[in-house]
Amino acid sequence: MHSLPALAERRTYAPIGRTVTALGLAAVLVVSQLYASIPLSPLTAADFGVAESALAWSSTGFGLAYAFGFLFLGPLSDRFGPGRVMVVGLGVASVTTAAVALAPGVSALVVLRAIQGFTAAAFAPAAMAYVAEQIDPRRRAIAYTILTSAFVSSAVIGQVGAQLLGDLAGWRAVFVVSGIGLLACAVWKKLALRSDLAGRPAVSVSPWRVMLDLLRNRRLVLLFAAASTLLAGFVGAYSGIQITGLADHDGLLWLRASALPAMVLTAVAAPLVTRIPAARRAVVALGFSTVGAAITAASGGGLVLIGVGMFLFSASVVAAGPALVESISDSAGPARATAVSIYSFVLFIGASLGPQLAVALHGAGFVVVALAITVLLALGTLLARLAR
């Protein structure tokens, strides 16, 4: 059996532009499903006759199932190939996503969202593993940054798109359209991307044994712990802005959309930023995310200052994500897909708990929510520093 390095010497790499475009667009659509429920909560609450805070479990249900799905579905890429896992996963997720529109009440919505989250989990670790196998190592850091930027930008794109489409056609239409889009992505991946490498090395008979081996690595454990704070703070901040009533409908749209330039600029700067070692980038980016959260806490509820803080916060999250992924992949050897699955698991466990943090503290006001997030991100920065 040939090793991947030996095979790499006799093959050409996938074109980065076409590959990253295909993966990036699917990434935005898949991960947007987590965030779509935040702006849709007023419409859904009115439809079901409940308070908006009761719908926080819709995001949490998706996020928890999405996170656990990584542990079960992510290692399949090491065994069957990331390209195959992506196509099948997107096809199944298209069905479960469209099914969310059929929910007759809150309980059914939470269950359907959890099923949707579990099936959607096949994509992200497979996409990261595909980049690791198919992209030239000299350009891989750029591909990671762009792909992770797509994942993180979905936090804004998903909210803005869901708010606009929900206002136009209702909350159920958002999930029907998303399901159609995911099916189109599955077909596109099948036709446009290169086939998986032949002669794949088996990393272990049991993916659970691989996970346990990875969790014995102190550096990886610290990086996983740091990653858990990233989206917990990010989703918690946007959820806090929503449920504390800081802004009206148009103000919320402005706050969400204002973060997009930060994400675009960070992705464009990837060729320069990726010259910095991944471990150092992770620490610096998490540090700046802490500063961004602190600015929102110091805003006193003023939308302009909150916008400035979320701009910096968003840019930092985009920079931190690929740095953490690169650091983890470099330390995981041939079990990179499994390692990225654990990373994705802890990342989205944090994301699923973010809305609950906001709900728990929203009675004290957004400033208290933002202070808690600042402390959480400071802890994440410290953990990343200890992992260097």
Protein model, in words:
- With 388 residues, this protein is an all-alpha fold.
- It has a single domain, classed as Growth Hormone, Chain: A (Up-down Bundle), CATH 1.20.1250.20.
- The protein is built from 19 helices and no strands.
- α9 runs antiparallel to α10 and α9 runs antiparallel to α14.
- The two termini are 34 Å apart.
Tags for this model:
transmembrane helix, transmembrane, cell membrane, MFS, 388 residues, Growth Hormone, Chain: A, mainly alpha
Shape: globular
List the uncertain runs: none
Cα(first) to Cα(last) distance is: 34 Å
Find the count of extended strands (DSSP E, 2+ residues).
0
Radius of gyration: 20 Å
Would you summarize the structure shown here?
It is a multi-pass membrane protein. 81% of the residues lie in helices and 0% in strands. The chain has 388 residues and is mainly alpha-helical.
